[in-house]
Structures are given as structure tokens and as C-alpha cells.
Specification:
Keywords: DNA-binding, Transcription, Transcription regulation. The protein has 309 residues and is an alpha/beta fold. 43% of the residues lie in helices and 19% in strands. The protein folds into two domains: 1-90, Orthogonal Bundle (Arc Repressor Mutant, subunit A); 93-309, D-Maltodextrin-Binding Protein, domain 2 (3-Layer(aba) Sandwich), CATH 3.40.190. A hairpin with a 5-residue loop joins β1 (49-50) and β2 (56-57). Mean pLDDT is 86; it is low at 300-306.
Length: 309
């Protein structure tokens, strides 16, 4: 039989990125958390953590985290049927990995009513697409939004729609770098904005114009900062259309190449055995995400993955 106090200690260490914060969360001493982890390792006969900064789960640790994450959600279903089992009466916390651009645009509006109706607290982890799926595989999150269609083992994925990006710059930037009009070859020699090392959306956009190889770019790991740097004429960038409608209408930002957007599909990944809370959230997203996302056509010119997705 599992000792869920030990599993809770493991989950807290991973979710809180360290022993000290895990101890604060569970109301224990750091020494007590360490002892619980050691006892868990003694019972399974191998390490469950790589003691790095932050700690990461071993392969057996990932399996245990997967288990405890799903048990928490299933316990919520049981507590709703037998209220006496819910001793604390606290809202459920749902841990979800999410790309930064979704968080900056449509996510809040899409799930606001759901959180109020279901009395759920969100614990959002902002990650790019690969790390988001790794977080699921490690059992750190119950669900994620990303651009990859293929789910991890034990999970399902379904298409929510696509986020439309437009290649934008300020009028001053365009006047400085393209005084005689747009030139695709010159674009690779003008500073771009890239979210981070895993951001390949600009590469795909340039490839769609027949441009391959490296290009000049700034790194800006902030969705809001990305837009502000574009407005400040520091570089050109691919920005979610949802985020810049006002700037486009006012002329503060303009399209580098008229009417050539690039779409990125967004998939919702969730555990198969995640309980009714995940079922309800999945239904809710299925019904409402299309209010903000565009239909995914799968066209070759569109991106299979992109900025922090």
C-alpha cells in the first residue's frame, strides 16, 4: 500500500521546486520533508529525486508523481459525493502548463467562469511546448496547452483551434530598415525579436519567404515585453493577433508583409483518469476556446509549433 504522506512530500518538493518551500506548504520542517523522501526511497528501493536545484524526479519518481496527481483529482470526485471526507473544505488546486502567449491573451477569459463555478484554484506553469509535455510526463501537471498533437502515455489531446500571429513592426522601424519598401532578403539582416532558444516561429516565417539560415535577433522571454519592444522599434516580431488589435487599428504597429499571418495549432492535453474536474474543464474549453482561436487548417505555410508553445 502507498503511504500518501510520503507521496505528498514528493509532489510538494517537485511542485514547489525545493525542500524549504515544500515544508512551508505542508506545514512541516524541512528535516521532516527530507525524512519522508528518504523513507519513500527506502520503500521503493531506489532514488525518487535527483537532488539538483531545482530537484527533478527520477523515472520511478515520475511514475509516483503521475499517480499522486491523478489520485488527487479522483479524490475530489469522491469528496463531492461524500462531503464528510472533505475535512479541510478547501478549493481544489489544478496544476496546468500553459504557453505564455495563451496566458497573455485568451486563457483567462476562457476559464474565468469555470473556475468560479467549480471553485477551483489554478496553479499555472508557463513553459514552452516541449517542457509542458515533459511536465505532464513527470506528473507535475494535470494538463497542458501546447502545439504538439501527440499526447504522452496515459493522456489524451484534442485540438482547440489555432493562434494567429502577424509579423509586425513599428512605422519607425519600417522607415529605418525598409525605406524603399519591403525586401525579404533584407528582413534576415534586420533585428528580430525571439522569445527564447526554443522559439522557432520566426525561423518558419522566414522559411515561408524562402529565407533559410541564421538571422539577427534579440531574446525577450516575456509576452508583454515582446510586444512593448516591438512598439519601441527595437525589432520586428511575430505577435498574437489577439494581443495587438488596438495597436494595429491605431497604426502604432504595422504588418511587415500585408496579410501574411502564420497560424499555430493549440492542443489541450489531459490525463485520461483525471476525474470529473478535468472532464468538465475539457468540455468547457471545447465549447469556448473557439471564441478566441481561429480554425486550424493545417496549411503548409502555417507553423507546427512556435513561440513558447
Amino acid at each position: 500500500m502507498f503511504d500518501y504522506k510520503l507521496l505528498s512530500a514528493l509532489a510538494a518538493v517537485i511542485e514547489q521546486a525545493g525542500f524549504e518551500r515544500a515544508a512551508q506548504l505542508l506545514g512541516l520542517s524541512q528535516s521532516a520533508i527530507s525524512q519522508r523522501i528518504k523513507l519513500l526511497e527506502a520503500r521503493v528501493g531506489q532514488p525518487v529525486l535527483v537532488r539538483a536545484n531545482p530537484p527533478t524526479p527520477t523515472e520511478i519518481g515520475k511514475r509516483l508523481l503521475n499517480h499522486v496527481q491523478q489520485v488527487r483529482l479522483l479524490e475530489r470526485d469522491l469528496q463531492s459525493q461524500v462531503p464528510a471526507l472533505d475535512e479541510e473544505g478547501l478549493p481544489e488546486r489544478l496544476r496546468v502548463a500553459l504557453n505564455a502567449d495563451s496566458l497573455a491573451t485568451w486563457w483567462g477569459a476562457a476559464v474565468g467562469d469555470f473556475c468560479a463555478q467549480q471553485q477551483v484554484l489554478l496553479d499555472l506553469v508557463v513553459e514552452d511546448q516541449e517542457v509542458g509535455l515533459k511536465r505532464m510526463r513527470a506528473g507535475e501537471v494535470a494538463a497542458c496547452v501546447c502545439a504538439s498533437e501527440r499526447p504522452v502515455a496515459g493522456a489524451r489531446s484534442e485540438l482547440l483551434g489555432a493562434m494567429r500571429y502577424r509579423a509586425l513592426a513599428s512605422p519607425a522601424f519600417m522607415a529605418r530598415h525598409f525605406p524603399d519598401g519591403f525586401d525579404a532578403e533584407r528582413l534576415a539582416r534586420t533585428p528580430a525579436l525571439v522569445f527564447g532558444p526554443d522559439d522557432f516561429l520566426q525561423h518558419r516565417y522566414l522559411a515561408s519567404l524562402g529565407i533559410t539560415g541564421g538571422f539577427l535577433h534579440h531574446l525577450c522571454p516575456s509576452s508583454e515585453g515582446f510586444m512593448r519592444l516591438t512598439e519601441a522599434s527595437i525589432g520586428w516580431g511575430l505577435v498574437p493577433e489577439l494581443q495587438v488589435r488596438e495597436q494595429l487599428a491605431s497604426g502604432r504597429l504595422v504588418e511587415i508583409l500585408a496579410d501574411k499571418p502564420i497560424d499555430v495549432p493549440l492542443y489541450w492535453h489531459h490525463w485520461r483518469n483525471g476525474g470529473q474536474l478535468l472532464v468538465h474543464l475539457t468540455d468547457h474549453l471545447r465549447q469556448h476556446a473557439g471564441n478566441w482561436l481561429v480554425p486550424w487548417t493545417g496549411m503548409a505555410a502555417s507553423a507546427a509549433s512556435g513561440k513558447n508553445l
